[in-house]
Fold this sequence. Notes:
This protein has a domain at about 20-90 and about 120-200: Up-down Bundle (Fumarate Reductase Cytochrome B subunit), CATH 1.20.950.20. Helices cover about 65% and strands about 5% of the residues. It has ten helices and two strands, in the order E-H-H-H-H-H-H-H-H-E-H-H.
Amino acid sequence: MSSEAMPLSPASVPAGEIQRYTFQERLCHWFSALTYVYCLLTGLAFYTPYLFWIAVLLGSGATSRFWHPIVGLGFLVSILWMHSLWRRDMTISGKDKQWLDQVNNYATNRDNLVPPQDRFNAGQKLFYWVMFWGTILLLISGLLMWFPEYISFRVAWIRSLAVLTHECAALITIGAFIIHVYMGLFLVPGSGRAMVRGHVPAAWARVHHRLWYDRVAGKPSST
Ligand code: HEM
């Protein structure tokens, strides 16, 4: 559901707070996190023998190899679900370019120099699109690795390309994922609570997502 259609103050939202994520959005997000982390851990176990102990901890090498592609399909479902909920909010706009020009000020907490943002800032949008397209690459390369018997020996190089693509896409999403978790849990206080409870104090929304706050609170726009 895009923020346009999000109800402003459902009964479960305490006074002085506004709804940031609906129950469905949080369910989708945490399903995505769970399936991604499983694929990440089992994928790392297959990547290097030094990390194979992770597969053993998660059942056994064979168990991890069996579930990795199936849970990967679950992650794909979560991304498509997320896309149906957030693709409008994640559309890149001219304001995002202004935010990216000021990213140094954002990183050093000089918030007064950062242009006001809508429901998601440009960094969050970039993360989203890296995960979205990364998942598409992981899907295509993963299917080729899952069913190699359908690839003719005359084009066996496709298998090597699939392995390389899968590893590169995984490493890129892992980098983005680490930044995401760090930002969500440590750098922006209140974000974790938003994704667990679904609502945020109005002051938090005003500071971090002024344009979105103005819109959902029915205030005149800040720009
Ligand atoms: C254990 C893993 C994860 C944690 C702790 C986590 C944490 C969070 C938090 C706290 C937020 C709220 C940010 C805000 O509203 O300011 C959030 C939002 C979001 N999460 Fe996650 N997340 C995790 C995994 C994932 C995964 C695997 C994806 C895959 C696509 C994902 C995609 C998103 C997106 C698109 C948003 C909204 C935009 C953004 O804040 O970046 N998250 N997450």
